[in-house]
Amino acid sequence: MAADRRFKIFAAADGFGQPLKDAVVAHLRAHPAVAEVVDLGVDKYYAAAAVVARQVSSPSDSSPDGPEVRGVVVCGTGAGVCIFANKYPRVYATHCASPADAVNTRSINACNVLALSGIATPPDAAAAIADTWLATPFRAPCPASGDAPWPEDIQRFFDTAPEEMAAIPEPQGPPDSACAICCLRSGMEFEPVGIMPGGEMRIVRESPTSAYVRFKAGSVEPAHHHTFGHDLVVIKGKKKVWNLTKKESYDLVDGDFLFTPAGDVHRVKYFEDTEFFIRWDGHWDIFLDEDLNTAHSAIDAELGAASNSK
């Protein structure tokens, strides 16, 4: 490995993978080639994979002189996090069970997200896999090449493979009218969310409740909570959610998922016209914990402070 090669690594896991993730994070933080490890914590396996994949897909610091951004994701088997990470463009995630797997996938696939099994892989084996994954350059000799340099025709293939992989899938035209979500929304009659100006909702299923919701840009949901936890998927738009109970915040855009546990107090700001699908674990209910003016003041103060700190 070149002496000046440096890495910034984002890591996350689900509950089954947390112990191994913690061990790998500690190992990587002591690795001489690793400039920074960002531990993004624990969530459902698809949410944990997504939060890492977003960072690798569109790194905030992509300067040529900056560290190479990679990711580590861990769940029970390593399969689920691998599947969901690979949904993001320019992410090439592979589950590795041995150092040989790591050499092969770095050489052949330019793997930039390492998926590990929290159940099957012990910490010492995971450390060896991670070290090999960092040390192996793209197109290197590997077990799949018989540990010899790749033939010239394969080298030519590798020369074009990264750009070709990044272009898959090709951009598609407007959504087909047979799309289930488009059909669901087409002709839908919305009802205003009276206590939250700018919001409209259509309940499509009762208990557990499923609904399609939309808010105008600039709208705010005051701090509130629900009796039941709920899953949310953003169809389009941009919003920020502050979980006041956990003292966390989440920036959500097209395709992002968020689960909010029952009773957690949260407030929301919409930066674009936003539509999302939401499912509660029971009948829909809502309990306000502040008024609209208080919410606007709190959000303006926090966003202003964040802007001034930049």
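The record above closes out task 2.4. Task 2.5 opens with a second protein, given below.
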Amino acid sequence: MQKENIIEFLLTSGFNALTYEQKNQIKLNRPTPHLLLTCQDGKCIRTFQKNWYSKFPWLTGCDKRNKVFCFTCVIFGGKSEKHAISQNDLTNQEKFHLLGKVRIEHVVSEGRRLAAVKHNEQVGINRRLIALMIHVVCFLGKQELAFRGHRENNESLNKGNYLELLELLAQEEQLLKEHLLSSAIFKGTSKMIQNNLIECVTSVLNSKFFNEIQKVNYVSIQADETTDVSCRSQMSIIFRYVVEQKNCGTIYWFF
């Protein structure tokens, strides 16, 4: 847009029709054409002086209309006869000076957005790590292997199946490796965390089996009891039932 056509464009199309970059460009290019204006002031005839643009920073002109205007009022709307002191003009001046500058609410909003992005990334990492630990728990349970070893400190040659499997996975999974080396708050290797993961997996499986048992016609129950070396009684209960699944035929479950 040519500088001499700016005021005519603003008067006909409006400032809001422009892009953010165009608005900032117009702010830096206030038209200051030489106008052939005269007015009768008593016995004197006064003519337009171009140095008025320097004296009044809000002043602009349109050579096509051969008129002068308030630049900020042309941009933001409104009419004012007493420029630089009217409330309307002061508001427009404030908008004009803030145009193109970084505003605190924008900075805060961007900071919140970045914080949310970082938080979501960390949540995704945490879910991936927990998923790996759950896979280890499910594998050990399926294979009926013990979780913990006799000694699980760093000097131990065998820290138990759970920790050894995590370290094995960490050799190929860089995310898990970095977590095990750097995490100081939640590492996922303590006895309490192992027990919590076992309880969570057990709860999910029990819920699945319970829902399936409600739908079958026949269930076989087998119970067995034994006493361990500490004379503590332990009982195992086995449920056997048949489940019909689409495209899979008959599946026999027991737990």
